[in-house]
Design brief:
The structure holds five protein chains of five kinds. Chain A is mainly α. Chain A is built from 25 helices and two strands. In chain A, 73% of the residues lie in helices and 3% in strands. In chain A, a hairpin with a 4-residue loop joins β1 and β2. The mean pLDDT of chain A is 80. Chain B has one domain: Orthogonal Bundle (Helix Hairpins). Helices cover 61% and strands 1% of the residues of chain B. In chain B, α1 runs antiparallel to α2 and α2 packs antiparallel against α4. Chain B starts with a strand and ends with a helix. Classes of the chains: A mainly alpha, B mainly alpha, C mainly alpha, D mainly alpha, E mainly alpha. Chains in contact: A-B, A-D, B-D, B-E, C-D, C-E, D-E. The interface between B and D is large, with 87 and 100 residues. β1 of chain B pairs antiparallel with β1 of chain D.
């Protein structure tokens, strides 16, 4: 059963996507039913898989594509199903399902400009993405994983650029693609290195033999993989694409850039944890990256004006939490805290994004200056929003609280037991981030839900609606369930999460800090009607808002030198290399003018010369031989 | 027993004849006839090759003369293929010639020199054929002007 | 097949065989022609030739032949004389050659060839040149148009005929005509019925006999390619038509009716073949009498949209059965 | 000279002679018909060389179909009865063509005969039987065979397009 | 051998017939007799007024398929031996050609108009 379920989670979305992309106009009216049905079945398969794995134990080898003999190594492109893959699969399937249902109203509803033509393509691409993510989750072989990894990249590109009529969307899509591709290069090289040195890319072999491989190889591979992780999971310094990726439709942001794809990097580390454990340096690097990213991104989130960008930066920050949790591992079973946070984050962040979509739907803008007073206009939505933000901030007893505290506890545990300075860095950074998270979450709630209704945007906004379709609100309740209740997993943790523990002192501190932040911000907002971000000095705020001007830095350090180099090369090509061909060209032209007299246009005449020439060559050959 | 010189000479003679037809004729269909002869020269060689004993020429030089033991008898298979290709080729070539004739009312290759540099395309006056003025050429000339 | 190191006895055998084929080739068409006269007449409620030779006008066609031989031959001034002259021979000879390979019984055959079926089809395919040459060399509008029609028709129907024949060859697993007749079993009548139907229809069209006599349709084209012919050469064209009918009947018998197979076929084999051939001849005459002439467009459409697909389907059926059994 | 060589020589001479007439005849249709004779006698040549199927294919396809195509084309391009004076190129070009032809024949014949001319072979009709050919085609030459179907398809489509092209423009 | 003899015999028969005809027949050519027959009226124009490419198209269609039929015969003899694989191979061959036929049909080349 586990085998079948795991196969189905990969195959169903793939089939749905192919059918959606390649069937003709006759099936277009059914695109909606088709996509929803597909994602529901996929969810069912994932739940079955969890059940199977918990009941019967993991299945290490599920044949998918058979064996490939590359000459230096035989790759068996198989799948596996264990608790890690099963739980993440459920998260992915659940979010994908909610997003598909949500999109039927948000993008494919009556009257939306996308409805007739672009919605089917959108739904099919989402299915394609789901399938690719499932492939990554279930891959037993790194090559197979890489295939899924790349397909995710391309579907992400397509989805960010969904509104391809907008320049900004196209630019964002290209940026996301290039940046993540840059990271993927590392993964590709790592896989090649593994094929050459370890002669295998089967994950179980790699994990079993991680200790035997040469230390230098393992370190290099781990660092290269980390590059891909940073790209896919939007970690410093490859995080710049994610805030821009908010150009994509909100459901896409919810699915890809919040819940699933960005988690793929963390997933990869968790999956290959023994390999990373064999390379201490890589884990330390990961911890440092995570520490920098979580705090930096949280601060940036604080300064944003755009609701979606707040959520985007918070995603970067939260993914850094996960990475930190995984990087604190000291044994192969220690992936628990990071994965736990991955699961809970998937639930509450998807919910938050979808709520943001609802708010946008009502207001016609994603800027927070246009929002406000949601508590009065739509109490249910504002309650849901509050739950999501509270989960994000780690308010007990919501899911975010449990998962975040396990991460902090792991850091503390590591710091206390010889984890060194990196663990202390994570712990301190994590505490500070918790505080900042509380602040910006409360700020977002205050701006959106409290106060009075703001005037609509000057241009009237695009698509202001009076009410929300039930397809959009329904899924919020669905997502609210795990957001609230996921902590119950801690009561009777499965094997995967057994390493996730909560130490009381750490938890107390980690709870009090955000609560204090929240209280202060709400007080400021309700009593003084002040935006906490206004307290920041203007220049600093702008600096944060632009994401530390990292784009400018990259522009100066990478883009401009490359462009200059290209100009030099082009000039050299034009003035030095081309001189020869140009000279040849004029020579040939002169020759051509002379020769054109011979072109009589008489076919048989040409053939005569041809035959005579062939004859001459033949005779010459005979004579010379 | 057949002396190999016979088929070989026949092939050579046919090839020479075909080449002559290819080069000396002005009528496009006649040119094709030359090409067919050329192809058949090749076929004669192929079929001759299939009569060689197993091991081909080198075995022949050793004095073997038995029938070919090669189960592929490539010569004959290739000969059949050549016939097939010739059929495809000539059909297409004739279709082109028919199109030319409908456009220009001629299948004389010396009148079709549009691709040449030296001649002014289409300005060649339609020649007289068989002593009678080609009135039909007016149609051809007209279509020429339409094309230009 | 070829070994000239033969003794006198073998040479005599070859000559005898050839001579008997030639005799059969002349006699059988005459017989068929006479049958046609009589059968047609009776089908139309009249008597037909009654006087020449005394008994039921048996010598009518011999007399006709003698008459043709005495007639003046007219070659139009505008015609291409040499081609005009040899065209009848080109029409006639292929059928004689084809008849060579058709067996009367397992060992009574002009030449038992390895690929006899392919040989017969190849020989008959040369026949298309005859009407074309005749039509072109006559320098006559009717003749030219008739020649083109004949050419197109013969080509179009050659294909289903070849495909139908291939089906039988496939069923028997050999191209030898004797082999095919030997492999024949009665249930093939059912199994190969579509092929037989296609073969008969296409064969009729090949002969340019009614209902497929478009090229020589007298109401449209006088006699098509043969318009300018007179005298003996015209008679040769007529002979070619009946010879073709004989060859077609014989071939049909061998391919689809089991040739010499029948009760006591070790003794009566040739008789059975002749009987079946005669039966087929009468069927051909019958079809002529009972079907109206088709139109040119119907003709080509029939060939390409019905017969070819039908024979292809038969090929598939045969192949599947052969491989599966 | 054995009997079979005699027959071969007869067919070969007939083939070459009619081939020569086919490329020199002043009357278009005669040229095409001489081509028929040449191709027919070449079928005989193949027979004497033991290639039975090739010979019959030659008859069926070349004589029965290809030449008919040529004749059709001639008739559709209004081939006149009688001598046409514009069949051949100018005297100089003809001379060049003859030289080329002689050169090719001499080169080919010379090298081939010099290489293998003094051997004898024993043609075996068994190699030319349909089943042997079938085994060869469907055993070892399958891919070229399948590719041929693509060639034929392409030629057919092209011919359809070309022959319709005139009317549409 | 017999085939050659039959061809020779056939030619002989034809020649003999023509020879006998030459001896037996009268020969009185007159200009009227020698004119082209055109239902009794004087010939008008040339014979080329009707020239239709469709004849050529049909002929070419035939050539293509005749070529493919040629392969059917060797195939027929080895079908039993090679089995399903060969069937599939010929299926592919014929299938590709059938595409050509369908194309011709769709293009209207098979309509006689």
């Amino acid at each position: 059963m586990t085998t079948t379920a795991a196969l189905l989670t990969v195959i169903i979305p793939a089939v749905v996507s192919v059918l959606g992309l390649f069937t003709g106009s006759r099936w277009r009216p059914w695109a909606r039913e088709w996509a929803v049905l597909g994602s529901l079945t996929c969810l069912g398969a994932a739940v079955l898989e969890v059940y199977g794995v918990l009941a019967d134990g993991p299945v290490r080898q599920i044949t998918l594509l058979g064996e490939v003999d590359t000459g230096i190594a035989v790759l068996s492109l198989d799948l596996r199903a264990d608790e890690l893959s099963a739980f993440v699969a459920v998260a992915v399937a659940l979010v994908a399902c909610c997003v598909q249902i949500y999109s039927t109203a948000y993008l494919g509803g009556e009257g939306t400009p996308d409805e007739p033509l672009r919605y089917p393509a959108f739904a099919a691409t989402v299915s394609l993405f789901t399938s690719a993510m499932m492939l990554v989750i279930h891959a037993e072989d790194l090559v197979l994983l890489l295939m899924g990894w790349e397909i995710m990249g391309i579907s992400s590109y397509l989805l960010i650029g969904h509104h391809s009529e907008r320049d900004s969307a196209r630019a964002a899509a290209v940026k996301a693609f290039l940046v993540t591709r840059f990271g993927d290069l590392g993964v590709t090289i790592a896989v090649v290195m593994l094929i050459v040195t370890a002669r295998t890319t089967a994950i179980r072999d790699l994990l079993a033999r991680a200790e035997e491989l040469p230390q230098s190889t393992v370190t290099a591979v781990a660092l290269l993989l980390l590059m891909g992780v940073a790209g896919k999971s939007a970690q410093f310094p490859l995080h710049t694409w994610l805030p821009d990726a908010m150009e994509g439709p909100t459901p896409v942001s919810a699915l890809i850039h919040a819940a699933t794809m960005v988690a793929a990097g963390v997933f990869l580390v968790a999956r290959l944890l023994p390999l990373f454990l064999a390379a201490d340096a890589a884990l330390t690097v990961a911890a440092v990256i995570a520490s920098i990213t979580m705090l930096g991104a949280a601060l940036a989130a604080l300064a944003q004006d755009d609701l979606k960008r707040v959520l985007a930066w918070s995603t970067i920050s939260q993914v850094a939490y996960m990475l930190a949790g995984v990087s604190m591992a000291q044994a192969a079973t220690d992936a628990g805290p990071g994965v736990f946070h991955l699961l809970s984050h998937a639930a509450f962040k998807a919910m938050l994004f979808l709520i943001a979509g609802c708010v946008t739907h009502l207001v016609g803008s994603t800027l927070m200056v246009h929002m406000g007073g949601l508590q009065r206009t739509n109490l249910k939505l504002s309650v849901l929003f509050g739950i999501g933000l509270a989960a994000l901030a780690g308010v007990p007893p919501l899911s975010g609280f449990w998962s975040k505290e396990t991460v902090l506890t792991a850091a503390e545990h590591s710091a206390m037991h010889g984890g060194g300075w990196a663990a202390w860095l994570v712990l301190v950074s994590g505490m500070l981030t918790a505080l900042v998270t509380g602040i910006y979450a409360a700020r977002a709630y205050g701006l959106v839900c409290l106060g009075d209704r703001r005037p609509p945007p000057a241009d009237g906004g695009h698509g202001v609606h009076d009410h929300l379709p039930s397809a959009m609100t329904g899924v919020l309740y669905v997502l609210a369930v795990p957001t609230v209740l996921l902590g119950l997993l801690m009561v009777h943790p499965p094997e995967l999460l057994e390493s996730a523990e909560i130490a009381l002192p750490t938890a107390a501190l980690g709870t009090l800090l955000p609560l204090a932040g929240i209280a202060w911000v709400l007080h400021l907002q309700v009593r003084c009607h002040r935006d906490v971000a206004d307290l920041l000095p203007g220049a600093f705020r702008a600096f944060l808002r632009s994401g530390y001007r990292l784009d400018d830095v990259q522009d100066a350090l990478v883009v401009r030198p490359v462009k200059a180099l290209a100009r030099v090369v082009a000039a050299g090509d034009r003035d030095v290399v081309d001189a020869g061909p140009r000279g040849t060209a004029s020579l040939a032209q002169a020759g051509g003018i002379a020769l054109r007299r011979a072109q009589t246009g008489l076919a048989t005449g040409y053939v005569t010369w041809l035959v005579a020439g062939a004859l001459a060559v033949g005779i010459a050959g005979v004579v010379l031989a | 027993m057949i002396h190999l010189a016979g088929p070989l000479l026949l092939a050579a003679a046919l090839a020479g004849t075909g080449i002559y037809g290819l080069l000396a004729r002005r009528n496009a269909i006649m040119v094709l006839i030359g090409a067919e002869l050329l192809m058949n020269a090749a076929n004669v060689l192929l079929v001759t090759a299939s009569t060689l004993p197993a091991g081909g020429l080198s075995a022949l030089a050793r004095g073997a003369s038995g029938p070919s033991g090669d189960p592929l008898i490539p010569g004959q298979v290739m000969a059949v293929f050549v016939v097939t290709i010739a059929a495809a080729e000539i059909g297409l070539a004739l279709a082109v010639i028919l199109l030319l004739f409908r456009r220009r009312s001629t299948s004389d290759l010396t009148l079709v020199t549009d691709l040449g540099e030296a001649s002014e395309s289409g300005s060649t006056p339609p020649r007289q054929r068989d002593g009678e003025p080609v009135t039909a050429a007016a149609v051809g000339g007209q279509s020429l002007q339409e094309e230009r | 097949m070829i070994d000239l190191g033969m003794d006198l006895g073998e040479i005599v055998e070859v000559v005898v065989r050839a001579a008997s084929i030639i005799v059969a080739f002349i006699a059988l068409p005459l017989l068929l022609g006479q049958t046609e006269h009589k059968v047609m007449a009776h089908m139309q409620g009249r008597l037909g030739p009654m006087y020449p030779g005394g008994f039921h006008g048996w010598a009518q066609l011999v007399a006709d032949g003698a008459k043709f031989a005495q007639k003046e031959e007219i070659i139009p001034a505008a015609a291409d004389r040499s081609i005009f002259r040899i065209a009848p021979a080109v029409s006639l000879l292929p059928y004689a050659v084809a008849l060579t390979a058709v067996p009367l019984s397992a060992d009574l055959v002009g030449a038992d060839l390895d690929c006899g079926l392919l040989f017969v089809l190849a020989a008959m395919s040369v026949g298309v040149l005859g009407p074309l040459m005749a039509g072109w060399s006559s320098a006559n509008k009717y003749a030219l148009l008739g020649g083109l029609r004949a050419g197109a028709q013969l080509l179009a129907y050659e294909l289903p005929m070849v495909l139908a024949a291939a089906s039988v060859a496939m069923a028997a697993g050999t191209l030898s005509l004797t082999g095919i007749a030997q492999a024949w079993e009665p249930w093939w009548l059912l199994w190969q019925a579509p092929a037989a139907l296609v073969f008969l229809t296409a064969g009729l069209a090949e002969l340019q006999r009614p209902p497929f006599d478009l090229p020589i349709a007298d109401s449209e084209l006088v006699v098509g390619p043969y318009t300018e012919y007179a005298g003996l050469r015209f008679a040769f064209f007529l002979l070619a038509e009946y010879a073709g009918a004989v060859v077609l009947s014989a071939l049909f018998t061998v391919l689809f009716l089991g040739g010499w197979q029948g009760p006591f076929d070790d003794v009566l084999g040739p008789v059975w073949t002749l009987l079946k051939t005669g039966l087929m001849g009468i069927v051909i005459i019958w079809l002529r009498v009972s079907w109206p002439r088709t139109r040119e467009d119907q003709l080509q459409r029939l060939a390409w949209t019905l017969l070819v697909p039908l024979s292809l389907a038969q090929l598939v059926l045969t192949a599947v059965v052969v491989v599966a059994v | 000279m054995s009997g079979i060589e005699l027959i071969f020589a007869a067919f070969a001479l007939l083939a070459w002679g009619s081939g020569l007439l086919a490329v020199t005849s002043k009357q278009v249709v005669h040229a095409a018909l001489w081509l028929v004779v040449a191709l027919g006698s070449l079928a005989g040549v193949y027979l004497t060389l033991g290639a039975e199927v090739v010979a019959l294919v030659q008859l069926l396809v070349y004589v029965g179909a290809v030449v008919v195509l040529v004749l059709f084309a001639l008739m559709l391009t209004r081939a006149p009865i009688g001598i046409s004076h514009d069949l051949d190129a100018s005297r100089g070009r003809r001379l060049a063509a003859a030289l080329c032809g002689l050169g090719v024949a001499g080169l080919l014949g010379g090298t081939l005969v010099a290489a293998v001319g003094d051997h004898e072979v024993d043609p075996d009709t068994a190699t030319g039987s349909p089943s042997a050919l079938g085994e060869a085609i469907f055993g070892g030459w399958l891919l070229p065979f399948e590719v041929l179907s693509l060639l034929l398809l392409a030629a057919l489509v092209a011919a359809l397009t070309v022959s319709r092209g005139g009317g549409e423009r | 051998m017999v085939v050659g003899a039959v061809i020779a015999g056939g030619v002989l028969f034809f020649a003999a017939g023509v020879f006998a005809n030459r001896i037996l027949r009268p020969s009185v050519p007159t200009p009227e007799k020698m004119t082209t027959y055109e239902s009794g009226v004087d010939p008008v124009g040339h014979g080329w007024s009707q020239s239709q490419v469709r004849y050529y198209l049909y002929a070419y269609l035939y050539v293509v398929f005749a070529v493919d039929a040629v392969y059917l015969f060797p195939w027929a003899t080895v079908l039993r031996q090679f089995g399903w694989a060969t069937l599939g191979e010929m299926g592919v061959f014929l299938g590709i050609l059938a595409v050509g036929l369908v194309h011709a049909w769709r293009r209207g080349a098979l309509r006689w108009s």
